[in-house]
Recover the amino acids of this structure.
């Protein structure tokens, strides 16, 4: 199995022109070895976010060229396994996060793992559920730092991009140029304090090039749901785009008139928040597979 | 058991000065008989929202005075049972809902129930989960039409205000002045098309006056969660207020420093959308009861 590490390739922006450090074939399984979002620089509670160079955070391992992928294709990335390090951290910073105005000073909390349990404090132990925070491809026409989420993926911070699930990304450039990083051992919808449990780890994925579906923006697949993801400067705008995409998918996928799909979404498809802090926000419309078995062509 | 109907009292705005049509004691169980949100005027697919007088929609049955409740108290309304009519409807309107700009013309869809299943179409049958869309008390100092959600409750459109759950509202005026209506047989988070399955029904509630907790805004309790609700003109602002309230509750309720509660919320408390259309939006921070057993004083 192919493996690439952040030591082989590490990017801080997704650009239309990215030089790959490896190539995979459609259908191949490979592993990405990832730093934590702060490049291993947070090692104790003395290390706070204000000391970091923000041009050097959220590095993504890659990019990897996917053979024979072309603009208009869709890349399906099935997350086969995420292995995380033994310790992660949470960190807050004035002016960052949903309540940034209320944060008096930077603070870091180290969070050791006890097997599959995060030890937040003596009394608060939480089962981990690792996900990939940043995953993306070379975008259509502008440069996005790995801090931002967008149509190309990037810093989506969507907790369902986790083991056993899949993310679908539109291909904008020849070879797609897949990169990922920013693993979280645990995060809730919203990522309100601006970090999850940030942690290093290894992500095993199976990558497929699909010619069937046509997507503008990322979609996540779980065993029971499709999620249409959209990112924008405000939650309201992200919510509108996710709803528009999701209703369009549902209309085509379930062969319903658009008006019926819109009404059905209102009673059966939750509109949710992936993250509200990155600094663009990501929303998701959740379509049960009972309503739509497959992504429409 | 006391019962009041929309024929006894029906309000189209929550105002500081409301004249009650009945009185209940703390601990008493009573029933509210409610019209659908459009006052029974939508009876077939020919009846569309553009024909309605928007000063006469979303009527709430009540108000009911709760004996011995005073400003600063909290009203707990436990939803014991919601019985709904045999048919409801969905309706869309240009410029309304998350995708209002995409709606070419008004359209209504009647949705009959087959027992506890909503028959959206021949192929799409969905189990119902009725909730109370509008529930509120006399507000502190201004008038809110029953169309709006706010600190007093109102058009919260929160799907968890359902049988077996409870909603907690701050009391702003002597006697609280409780009213409710706008029942939905089914709705998803977001209520993206601007309606759920709108339906008439009866709501049996048990009302308690609590002197312990102190709340600024509505809280919903389910068997496993507390939800701090907040409403504002934008999703971003509603999300910020819900997060601020929820983190404050968690800090006091779990006896954690504020910074720790903020970080814990980021990994364990989902920030979600109740509705994105009313025209103010309602967000909720979801606190698992494993982290906080009781509402703090």
């Amino acid at each position: 199995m192919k493996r690439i590490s952040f030591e082989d390739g590490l990017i801080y922006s997704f650009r239309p022109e990215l030089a790959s450090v490896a190539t995979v074939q459609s259908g191949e399984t490979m592993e990405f070895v990832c730093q934590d979002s702060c490049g291993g620089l947070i090692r104790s509670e003395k290390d706070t976010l204000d000391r970091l160079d923000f041009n050097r955070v959220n590095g993504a391992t890659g990019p990897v060229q996917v053979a024979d992928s072309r603009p208009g294709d869709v890349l399906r990335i099935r997350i086969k396994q995420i292995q995380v390090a033994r310790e992660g951290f949470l960190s807050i910073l004035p002016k960052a996060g949903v309540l940034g105005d209320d944060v008096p000073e930077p603070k870091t909390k180290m969070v050791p793992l006890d097997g599959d349990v995060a030890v937040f404090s003596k009394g608060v132990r939480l089962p981990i559920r690792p996900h990939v925070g940043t995953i993306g491809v070379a975008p259509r026409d502008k440069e996005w730092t790995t801090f931002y989420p967008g149509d190309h993926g990037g810093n989506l911070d969507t907790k369902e991009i986790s083991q056993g699930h899949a993310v679908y990304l539109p291909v904008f450039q020849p070879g797609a140029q897949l990169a990922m990083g920013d693993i979280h051992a645990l995060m809730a919808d919203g990522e309100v304090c601006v970090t999850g449990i940030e942690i290093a780890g290894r992500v095993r994925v199976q990558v497929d090039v699909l010619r069937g579906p046509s997507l503008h923006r990322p979609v996540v697949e779980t065993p029971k749901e499709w999620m249409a993801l959209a990112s924008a400067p405000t939650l309201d705008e992200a919510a509108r785009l996710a709803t528009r995409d999701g209703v369009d998918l549902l209309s085509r996928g379930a062969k319903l008139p658009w008006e019926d799909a819109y009404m059905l979404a209102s009673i059966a498809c939750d509109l949710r928040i992936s993250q509200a802090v990155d600094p663009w926000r990501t929303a998701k419309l959740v379509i049960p597979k009972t309503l739509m078995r497959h992504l429409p062509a």
Summary: Residues 235-253 of chain A form the longest helix (19 residues). Chain A is about 10% helix and 40% strand. The domain at 219-288 of chain A is CATH 3.10.28.20 (Endonuclease I-creI). The mean pLDDT of chain A is 97.
